[in-house]
Amino acid sequence: MSERLLAIDFGRTFGWCYDPYVKGMSGSIYLESDNEGHRYLQFHRWLQMQFNQGLNHVSYERPIGYHQPITIKPFAFYECTVLMMCACYNVSFSCTYPSTLKAYTTGSGKADKKDMIKTIQRIIPDLELMDDNHCDAVAIWLWGNDNEAQADEVKRIKDLKEKKAADRNKKSAEKKAAKNQKKLF
Predict the structure, then answer these.
(1) Segment 145-151 long-range contacts (CB within 8 Å, at least 24 positions apart)
(2) Are strands 26-30 and 13-17 parallel, antiparallel or unpaired?
(3) Contact (Cβ atoms closer than 8 angstroms) between residue 17 and residue 61
(4) What is the CATH number of domain 5-165?
(5) Are 53 and 75 in contact (CB under 8 A)?
(6) What does the pLDDT look like over 22-67, one tens digit per residue?
(7) Would strands 57-61 and 5-9 be described as parallel, antiparallel, or unpaired?
């Protein structure tokens, strides 16, 4: 698992989470300005501070099916900013879709906000959720940690298989060499 995973739920009020089990390590932030450019700048500055403090991984939710320019434009900016920062700081990232996150969290890809909030409150009873954005960020964090743990396990299994294959190839080469040496005598 990451030493420092940041989960973000994009929006004018965006949720964020480093660790939902520690008070003050998750929440939501309202981007106050009515000027779209200023909101983007607020988000960029906030994200820059997070990267400056050191991150290992960023997970976020990628909405699908939003075809209205009013929704696509801000989301595209937020995602682009995250991807650019990840590239600049050599930080890995992962994203999930809303239905995948809902299914992971509640068991149903069609869960509503109330179901998500109830489930997160059941999983982490001491957490005081600020709003549904905070809730989604916590769910993304839980998914991101599981996703990374699964990726680590997949890599470990792959490395083990590669080592076994290399050992088999080495033994096979040694047998062939021994056989060829016997033919010479």
Answers:
(1) 145/1, 145/2, 145/5, 146/104, 147/59, 147/94, 147/96, 148/1, 148/2, 148/5, 148/57, 148/94, 149/1
(2) antiparallel
(3) no
(4) 3.30.420.10
(5) no
(6) 999 999 999 998 898 999 999 999 999 999 999 999 999 987 765 5
(7) parallel
